[in-house]
Amino acid sequence: MNQTNSVYEFAGYRVDPVERLLTRYGDPIHLPPKVFETLIVLVENPGKLVAKDEFITRIWPDTFVEESTLARNISDLRKALGHAPDSPKFIETVPKHGYRFVAAVRASSSAAENIVIELHRSSRIVSEETESAVELAPSEIAPMNGCLIPSTSPDLKKPLATRLVWIALGAVIVTAVVTSIFGRRAAGLPQGPSAT
C-alpha cells in the first residue's frame, strides 16, 4: 500500500493515512487495517471508478484474495461511515466493475508532514550555527583517546620547524656550558671564587 502525505476530509470526516486515523467531528472511529486501507484507496480517487483489481493489488499485494473479501470490506466501511439522514451515501457500487467514492473530498497537507519539515528546518539551523561556532583549522585539532578535540596548548599550534629550532638552540647552549666547565678544569683554572 502506498503511503500518502495528504489528509482527506469529507462531510465532517477526516482521514489521516500517516496516523492511520479516521475521525468524525474530532471523534475517532475504529476501522480494521484492511478496511482503513480500502477507505484510503477510495478517498484518493473521489468521483472515479476504482476497479476491483486495483483494490486487491493495493490492499493485498502478492496475495490471492476473493472478491467477496473486498465486498465485505466495503460493507464494513459503509456501516462505519453510517447512512444517517444528514449524511450522503459515500460509496457507490458499479456492478461487475468496482466502486466509486461519490462524496466531495478535500485533500490537504498532513499536519505530521508539516511538523517533520519544521523540525528538519530547526535542526538544520542549529547544525549550521554549531558548525560556524566551532570552525577550527586542521592544525588546531589534536587527537586524544581516538577522538578529535580542539587543542588548547599553544605549543601544539606552533609549526614543527619552529619547535625544532628552539630544541636545537637549547642543546647548543647546554653543550657550550658543559664544555666551558670541563675545559676550565682541564686547564687547571679555578672553578669558583678563590679562597683567601
Structure overview:
- By secondary structure, this protein is of the alpha+beta class.
- The protein has two domains: 6-109, Orthogonal Bundle (Arc Repressor Mutant, subunit A); 139-189.
- It is built from six helices and ten strands.
- It has helices at 33-43, 52-59, 67-81, 111-133, 154-157, 160-186; strands at residues 6-10, 13-16, 21-24, 27-29, 49-51, 91-94, 98-101, 106-109, 141-144, 147-150.
- The strands form three sheets. Strands 4-3-2-1-8 form a five-stranded antiparallel β-sheet.
- Helix 1 packs across helix 3 (67-81).
- The radius of gyration is 41 Å and the shape is rod-shaped.
What is this entry, summarized?
By secondary structure, the chain is α+β, with helices and mostly antiparallel strands. It contains 6 helices and 10 strands, in the order ββββαβααβββαββαα.
